[in-house]
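Dataset card, provenance and construction

Sequences and ligand SMILES were collected as paired inputs. For each pair, a complete structure of the chain with the small molecule in place was predicted and serialized as structure tokens. The example below shows a pair involving shikimate-3-phosphate. Curators did not alter the output after generation; any descriptive sentences attached to a record were derived from the structure itself.
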Amino acid sequence: MEGEAGFREREEQSIDDLTQMSGIVLATGGGVIMRESNRNHLSARGIVVYLCTSVEQQLVRTARDKNRPLLQADNPEKILRDLFAVRDPLYRSIADIIIETDQHNPRWVVQELKKRIKDL
Ligand SMILES: Nc1ncnc2c1ncn2[C@@H]1O[C@H](COP(=O)(O)OP(=O)(O)O)[C@@H](O)[C@H]1O
Ligand SMILES: O=C(O)C1=C[C@@H](OP(=O)(O)O)[C@@H](O)[C@H](O)C1
């Protein structure tokens, strides 16, 4: 296995490649925000949307998910809290649009996002 370091290298290259395309929606992995080069590419080349979700709600939504390597641990709540503390300010620092999703279903989030993009 390549481990997280190898994954982050490939992720950085992919972000550089994909952010040069136009007319796409790019749903990144949550950890993309950690590297400065990713933050720069995303903020300079597109509209950045932060779908903000509380740790409590993240726990509900990921409870049965086996495909999130970082959460396959004894205490996913602590992991999510620690990640949120580091990442939330970084997401906010490059977001053009921030939408709180806790109380809303995906359909509402999409409608809200369409309005907010029009208003930019
Ligand atoms: N607004 C929402 N309301 C309810 N469930 C949601 C909402 N957004 C996402 N989910 C659910 O939460 C889980 C994680 O969503 P996902 O889009 O994979 O998040 P991310 O891409 O940020 O990791 C999925 O099961 C998804 O169906
Ligand atoms: O938060 C992270 O560091 C990661 C989240 C994953 O994406 P999702 O946010 O889609 O789960 C994926 O990029 C990788 O497992 C690392």
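Derived descriptions for this record:
The domain at 3-118 is CATH 3.40.50.300 (Rossmann fold).
The CA atoms of residues 63 and 76 lie 9 Å apart.
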